[in-house]
Design a protein that fits this description.
The structure holds two protein chains of two kinds. By secondary structure, chain A is mostly helical. Chain A is built from seven helices and no strands. Chain A folds into two domains: about 170 residues, no CATH class; about 60 residues. Chain A is about 75% helix and about 0% strand. By secondary structure, chain B is an all-alpha fold. Chain B has four helices and no strands. Chain B has one domain. The termini of chain B are far apart. The chains are: A mainly alpha, B mainly alpha. At the A-B interface, helix 2, helix 3, helix 4, helix 5 and helix 7 of A face helix 2, helix 3 and helix 4 of B.
Chain lengths: ~260, ~70
Amino acid sequence: MTGVTFWASPATDGGSSLMAGRLLARGMVAGVIAACLAFLFARIFGEPQVNLAIAFEAAQDATAGMAPEPELVSRAVQATFGLLVASLMYGAAYGGIYAVVFAFAYGRMGRISPRALALLLAGAGFLTFVLIPGLKYPPNPPGIGHPDTIQLRTATYFEVIALSVCVMAIAILVGRRLALRLGAWNATLCGVGLFVVLTALMQATAPDINEVPANFPAVVLWRFREAAIGMQIVLWSALGLIFGPLAAAVLAPKTGGRRLAR
Amino acid sequence: MSHSLSSSIPGFAPAPAAIPVRAVLPWAAFGVVLALALLYFVGAEQGATSLISGHAVHEFVHDGRHLLGFPCH
């Protein structure tokens, strides 16, 4: 089970399976490290907006004569430990999914180095899992969203992520098919075009949800969404940059001195 | 060894060997199931659905759930 053994027999099942497993583990590790950075970003830029939103919500409740919500978990824990644990779980989850996609894509996307492929796929992951679903259902701070519609909002949110994955997969598969006939450049353009059309179709047909209270401070909403998208950009770019060298070390020969990754 | 031959020519990197699909599939299934379980607890537990009674999980991951873009409340 040494590095030399699995490199010496990359075509055999044992070696390849070990390689895939190591990629998955490293993807999750990279996701956890990236999540630490994303947590720091969210702690600095996100939490002030969450607190402002909660203050607005509390003021609204007080005006309406409602009792303040009981704190099961203190705000201090939510804003530190809770946020960190949630970020780590999220990072490990998407790090794992991302590494699986990498394991399938490597060697099937032309002559691209592991590091470049890692960055490319991190960009695609951000687009597919975050940006496209987020354009339809953007992140909302506390104080926005009726408890009665949580089922509908959760279902539509996960559906739009699933559809986004399908759209990306269809665009890539069609683009790859066309590459034989049209050449790489035109096939890529066709794939991108198909992606845009399918995404627009998806965005137009998914139900609209707008539960922002009329008097919710616009600046808080904007700053919160900026922080949320910034947190994701930190997470996905760190994931791509950290996973690249880790994956290259799994895929490159350990002996001989020459590294495949450049 | 065409591999070492072609790689010795500058500017002609060999196409990297893909990992066979059947070698990736078990790990893919394991990884995706694990990821979905993690995402469920961050994004949906004690919100839309509830496996554990109470609100402790929801409250604990509350800020992360909002900032990571999941629907909440």
